[in-house]
Amino acid sequence: MVSIALQRTRSIANGRLGSLLLLLALCVVLVVVGQRVLSGGLSFFIQILVFGLANGAIYGLVALGYTMVYGIIELINFAHGDLVTLGAFIGLAFFPIFGLVEGKDLGLIGVAALAAVFLIAMLLTGGINVLIERVAYRPLRNSPRLAPLITAVGMSFVLQGIMYLWKGAFQIHVPDILPGSRIPLGPGASVGVKDLIVIAIAVVLVIGLNLFIDRTRLGKAMRATAQDRDAAQLMGIDINRTIAATFFIGAVLAASAGMIRGLYFNTVNFSDGYQLGLFAFTAAVFGGIGNIQGAALGGLFIGLVKAYGDAYFSSAWTDVYVFAILILVLVFRPSGLLGMRVPEK
Amino acid sequence: MNWLSRSKPIVLVVAATLGAFACGGGGGGGSSTSTNKGTIAIGIDLPESGAEASNGVPTMAGVKFAVDQKKSIKGFTLSTVNFDDAVNGVHDPQKGAQNVNQMLANADVLGMVGPFNSNVARAEIPITNQAGLVMVSPANTNECLTRDYDYCDPKASGLRPSGQANNYFRVAATDDHQGPAMADYAYDQLKATTLAVGSDNETYGKGIADNFAKEYLKKGGKIEVRQDYPGMKNVSDFRSFLTSAKSKNAAGVYFGGTDSNKVCVVRSQMKGIFPASTPFMGGDGVVTSQCLNDAADNAVDMYGTVAAVDASHTPEAKSTIDAFKKANPNATDYGAYTVPAYAATQAIFEAVSMAIDSNNGNKPSRKQVRDAMAKVKNLKTPIGTISFDKYGDVQPQIITVYHAKAPSGTDQANAPACNTNNSVCWVFEKSVNYSGGA
Questions:
Q1: B90–A169 C-beta distance less than 8 A
Q2: Is residue B242 part of a domain?
Q3: What is the DSSP letter of B428?
Q4: A22 CA to chain B: closest CA distance, Å?
Q5: Structural domain contains residue A11
Q6: Does B59 lie in the same domain as B35?
Q7: Residue B154, preceding bond cis, omega within 30 degrees?
Q8: What integer pLDDT is reported at residue B162 of this predicted model?
Q9: Residues A39-51: pLDDT tens digits?
Q10: Contact B50 A192 (CB under 8 A)
Q11: Is B383 in the same domain as B347?
Q12: Amino acid A339: pLDDT
């Protein structure tokens, strides 16, 4: 009895001490951050907020693909980041065909052409991902988890290799065709039309995806498959088609993210997908893997932390901030900010 | 060049056969000048594939051209043994180390030209120093490869743990002159008194940015923002850095690093944050066509230094360049380091020739060539009359400043690089002699 009581008091003390220390650390961090933010001025803060949101929108779009695939077959699709780059590469190939060149005002025809290029890149990348699923993941669906994980890593290198052979090792310039005008937000801060376009496209896609999964038959089939594959099959759902559709949609989002990213930063490199994928995956885990809103939220969070880290502290440490916060969140909420939507198995 | 690379295996076989004969008949000590006494090979180690082929291939062509012209030294036939130190298209120190080990296994290799990148040299020098193989780099600029400055890590002596005599020489000037040269130019010519400084955090990029900053502060300039990006190849958004630079009234940006690390993407992202005419400055890592392509419609008004003379403004170089361009007619065959590579090869020829003499006309050892190289003085080359100081650094130390702008007249023909549609070129601005020390 005594020993149990002793243990209890000790654990409470430990807990209190732990949270006290944590609180203290948080206070120090807040003071340091606050000081930097105040000395930087409000308009600078707003300017960085704009960058962070636009970056976060891109991370969010990529994170959706990770979260969807994980939700449905519990595979961490390491090749997903490279689909983003592939989408940009495919889009880039169609730019000159549709007359999209730098230094020309976009106009109505240009917008239509750009939309067509987006569509082509999204459909082709989607098709390629369905093919990848058919060749590399489906045969391994009932093997131990590690097997498809490793094929995913392998596919990542295969995709990178193909892009390397296609366009070479150097970063490729993506024509700067989005309007460059900026809307002033006060002294020294402005939001670019480009930033707004990126954020708007991402928001539309996320809402669209949500509606699709909640309202359509295929969306329902996806949810059912994610919940219990065998039961879904018994109910007459074509599992193979549902999973293929998931890969298709994931890749469509990846390709759109790749195109947006290319148009936004005006540069793309065959190996960009690795780092981008890593952070997008982190975003998905952060928000709660398998959870669509969580992925979008996680992406925004990472975009903001990276932008503010770069702006107020050294960019050398930006990744450390991101992962430090991630660890903290996961320690207290192991299933991510919004919780997992993956059923227990 | 195609012809050369295709015939390489044959050349090697012939060389090996000749080498075997030479070993057999070495005792004869032939006095006749026409007899072939064997083969002496020049090793080449440069990044020749992928992103950096545009650096390495024209440089390699310079070496091969020098060998083709010279053909033989005192009865020894000259040949080249070529290695690529790029892995996945990017220069790789480990691959470089592996390459020099392969060179060392070939007894004919008495000297090497290369490497191109300072971090590759850092991996190679300890190996070649041990073996006494002389290396002459046409392009390495990091000063810590030859000098023991306090801030160097590792120091030059740390790269030569065997305690052997120095075997590393270079015909490029060093970053402790290249950085300050741009600082002088920025402060005196461009009249920029407040700047932001960044780097790709590599040996070369961070080093040259530090050297720039040191001189710029000394002159009275102010550096408001400093940002180093480790793993910069994977960073795509530099606007936080640029926005804070702008908010602190920086009148320009100096960025140390190489184009393969996206340094010139930083320039393209200045659009919308800085006015178009704001200067963007860098070292020789940005004086490339890739850099102009990355900067795209914001390429004009970048400034870059090169740690060498501008061959097109050096009268001695003209005949060599003309002959080279006749033998290698493709525009991509010629690069900023073709002529320096030619000069580096000439320096090895000179050392080999001296070593043969001191070895009574016989094939010298690697260490004899190395010792002879330290004595090379006032050698006439297309980059001027050069000597090496006791550290292995070239004298005189000449830095050339280039300005990215629309070419006019002969600018395009003389430029070290232009963008894809030739609308912007690196145009010669001026050359400065920093031999007095900075």
A1: yes
A2: yes
A3: E
A4: 29
A5: no
A6: yes
A7: yes
A8: 81
A9: 778 888 888 899 9
A10: no
A11: yes
A12: 77
Identify the pLDDT of residue A25: 82
CA distance B308 to chain A (A): 25
Q: Is residue A279 part of a domain?
A: yes
Say what the ipTM of the complex is: 0.81
Please compute the mean of the pLDDT values over residues B143-147 and round it to a whole number: 93
pTM of the model: 0.80
Together in a domain, B363 and B297: no
Are residues B193 and B75 located together in one domain of the fold? Answer: no
Residue A29 belongs to some domain of the structure: no
B2: part of which helix (H) or strand (E)?
A: helix B2-25
Q: Which two tokens stand for residue B34?
A: 């026409």
Integer Cα distance of B331 and A155 in angstroms: 38
Domain count, chain A: 1
Contact B268/A173, CB-based, under 8 Å?
yes
Number of domains, chain B: 2
Is residue A106 in a domain? yes
Closest residue to B234, CB basis, from A261, A275, A307: A275
* Domain membership of residue A85 as a residue range: 64-287
Question: Which DSSP category does B74 fall into?
Answer: T
Question: B9 pLDDT exceeds 70?
Answer: no
Is B203 contained in some domain?
Answer: yes
Residues written for chain B: 438
B418 has a pLDDT exceeding 80: yes
Helix (H, G, I), strand (E, B) or coil at B286: helix
pLDDT tens sequence across A273-289:
988 999 999 999 999 88
Query: What does the pLDDT read at residue B165?
Result: 92
Tokens of A147: 């097997």
Residue at B113 is within a domain = yes
* Nearest Cα residue to B68 out of B57, B56, B77: B77
The enclosing domain of B241 has a CATH number of 3.40.50.2300
| pLDDT at site B163 | 82
- Domain extent for B82: 2-172+314-395
Contacts of B233 in chain A (CB under 8 A): 269, 271
| Angstrom distance (rounded) from CA B332 to CA B290 | 13
Rounded Cα–Cα distance for residues B212 and B156 (Å): 21
Same domain, B410 and B294: yes
Q: Mention every residue, 6+ apart, whose C-beta is less than 8 A from residue A114.
A: A98, A100, A106, A177
Please indicate, yes or no, whether residues B252 and B197 belong to a single structural domain of this protein. Answer: yes
Under 8 Å between Cβ of A267 and A171? yes
Judge if B132 and B216 occupy the same domain.
Answer: no
Does residue B438 fall inside a structural domain?
A: no
**Whether residue B140 sits in one domain with residue B86:** yes
Which has more pLDDT, B215 or A176? B215
H, E, C per residue of chain A: CHHHHHHHHHHHHHHHHHHHHHHHHHHHHHHHHHHHHHHHCHHHHHHHHHHHHHHHHHHHHHHHHHHHHHHHHCCCCCCHHHHHHHHHHHHHHHCCCCCCCCCCCCHHHHHHHHHHHHHHHHHHHHHHHHHHHHHHHHHHCCCCCHHHHHHHHHHHHHHHHHHHHHHCCCCEECCCCCCCCEEECCCCCEEEHHHHHHHHHHHHHHHHHHHHHHHCHHHHHHHHHHHCHHHHHHCCCCHHHHHHHHHHHHHHHHHHHHHHHHHHHCEECCCHHHHHHHHHHHHHHHHCCCCHHHHHHHHHHHHHHHHHHHHHCCHHHHHHHHHHHHHHHHHHCCCCCCCCCCCCC
B-chain CB neighbours of A310 within 8 Å are: 227, 237, 240-241
Distances (CA, A) of B317 to B324, B328, B338: 10, 16, 11
